[in-house]
Amino acid sequence: MIYRLLALNIDGTLLQTNGKIHKSTREAIDYVQQKGIYVTLVTSRSFPSAKKVAKALKIKAPLVTHQGAYIAGVESKPVYVKRINEDITYDTVRFLEALPCQIRLVHEQFSLANKIKLHNHLLAKTVFTTGDPVFYSQQFVSSLSEYLHDQPVTPPKIEVYFEEKRDLKDAKNALGKMFTEIDVIELDSLRVDIVPAGASKLSGLSYLGSQLGIRKSEMVYIGDGLDDIPLIEAAGLGVSMWNADFEVKRASDWVTRSENEHGVAYMVKEHFRKQQPIEFLKKMKIIRK
């Protein structure tokens, strides 16, 4: 099979646990792009955060961000945006404020979160190390619902970090029954992302593929999270990181090394060195476009 697009998750895939990109990973991404293969990022992160990573890797293709609700190029306007409307955002926040959780409205230009004392150390670390660049405004308010009453927001995504696993399960079930306008995506036992109904990493990547004229069977996807499973299963070649959960590995065609063992670079060099450049394949009429 000839692959024409490489899609990558960021956290736990491209980045090492220290938050940095290894030199070998940069070289691997450059190697793939020189062969004429599109490279994109597919992430739950905000667009500004993903854009920072893309610039470091010199990725030119549009990025699938905010769990698929916001797609844009590094230097261009968004090509696709889906938002949670004002009323649903307000009602969702009002419901969540009754639970001990961090609520973060993630807009493409800013984030807005409630002030809450976090007793779970891991949770606190997660919320405050999201990788957002310094120029991305992050504001914390005492009451999100009061703020939204006066200044409505239509975010592509809402992040929620729970203190207790049972609260996540209860909230996910309740929100699913209360609203048809949103989808709740479980990332782990303490975090969910709330997005407009129909938005997902897979729908975002599928949309980008349709814009580029690339079928899912011509894509390679590398990820490590539970929300990466649908993409790993749908891609022509679905790859999981060694550091991924068992469910993610079970869904994949290939398991590469961990993020700290440069798994992306290893996979790329093992596979793509066997594939001729896209322009050569076109000249030989092996592919037509």
TrEMBL record:
Q: Does the keyword Hydrolase apply?
A: yes
The record lists the membrane-crossing segments as none
Which Gene Ontology CC terms are recorded? cytosol
* Gene3D superfamilies in the cross-refs: 3.30.1240.10, HAD superfamily/HAD-like (3.40.50.1000)
* Keyword Zinc carried by entry: no
The source's domain of life comes to: Bacteria
The record ties this protein, via Pfam families, to: Hydrolase_3
- InterPro entries per the UniProt record, alphabetical: Cof (IPR000150), HAD-like_sf (IPR036412), HAD-SF_hydro_IIB (IPR006379), HAD_sf (IPR023214)
- One MF annotation (Gene Ontology) recorded for this entry: magnesium ion binding
Q: List UniProt keywords, sorted A-Z.
A: Hydrolase
Q: What is this protein called?
A: HAD-superfamily hydrolase
Q: Which organism is it from?
A: Neobacillus bataviensis LMG 21833
